[in-house]
Amino acid sequence: MSLLSEVLTGGITGGTSIQFAAQGESISERGGVVNLGTEGSMLCGALAAYAIASKTGHPWFGAMAGAIAGGLLAFVHAYFVLSRKANQLATGLVVLFLGLGLTSLFGVDYVQALAPSFRSTAIPLLSRIPFIGAIAFKQDMLVYLSYVLMPLSYWIIFRSRWGVLLRAAGERSEVLTAHGHGVISIQYIAVVVGGMLAGLGGAHLSIAYTNSWFENMVQGRGFVAVAVVMFAARQPFKVAAGSYLFGAALALSPALQSRGYGINQYALDAVPYVVTIVVLIALGRRQSNQIPEGLSKVFEASIAG
Amino acid sequence: MAVGGGLAGIGGLTQLAGAEFKLRSGFIVGYGYVGFLASWLGRHRPLYVVMSALVLSAIVIGGDSLQIDSQLPAASVNVLLALVLLMVFGFGQRKARA
What we know:
The structure holds two protein chains of two kinds. By secondary structure, chain A is mostly helical. Chain A contains 13 helices and two strands; from the N terminus they run ααααβαβαααααααα. The longest helix of chain A is centred in the first third of the chain and has 28 residues, at 3-30. Chain B has a domain at 30-97. Chain B is built from five helices and no strands.
């Protein structure tokens, strides 16, 4: 395999978990709620998916369990932010610690366990396209699900009726209230759906990508997802591009090493972050006015204390 | 912001020079987030922040003895940390912030 196709294939495989989480986070942020606990939802999703897949023997049950676990943790965030009016940023971090603690507590039994994983299946016609076919269409089922998610997320946010309500909840919640819609209930759904997608992302990590469970296995991907969402201005397609870009930069390091380039390991570890930040800043300069107003209120309130 | 970053750097130095005595990658992961939460718990007032930082660090360090004494992973203590903070953020600050 050439270096380019190896990096691109790795980019899609490694970027998928981030993409799930980032799409979820964009839905949540469109509704005016930042969820810094995305990382926690991913961890819960990863452990639940691995545990259920190893108990039942079906990776699909695992994926469902991962989504449910991620959604449950996000519900905790939603309850404290929406019903108890706690600060979003602080609560998000606390929820992350909750997820980290719960998964290391209950995850001990599964470090050694074996679970069935998603195998890579080639899509009949598409996988025979030269170059692209081998990269994009010889992946596992969750990757294909994430391909569907991209346009679906766009459609939900920009074309569906619920998307209008969602964006209104994030931009001008007063208008929604005046029209007789429940802002809080829409935001609850947005946050929980966001958490479920993050859970699916975690599930992809544990039962498709690494096929193992270990403590704190998400290793910052949840925060990367949040950063990608902010730099990509919550646009589903840009969010997806940013996620795959990060994944590709992650795949660069092992690909270079297997070819015997003697580059400092720690310098290579920093490459994904540098590349993603630089590219997304370069692409997203003009979009500072696209932050939902409900969100900018959060940041202003946090600064004022 | 620059002052804040400088202070955070001193925090890293303290951990290096006072507790670990060696540089290994990833040794300080998560402490920054705990610091953020300590600042919230102390409502961003210096004296209160000192106290809340001591309380949080007691919980976090408690994780080590948890692992030694009862074979639970050290990170389990994060559950306790999170529950305490959720209660304070969710039910404690209503009057102060209204």
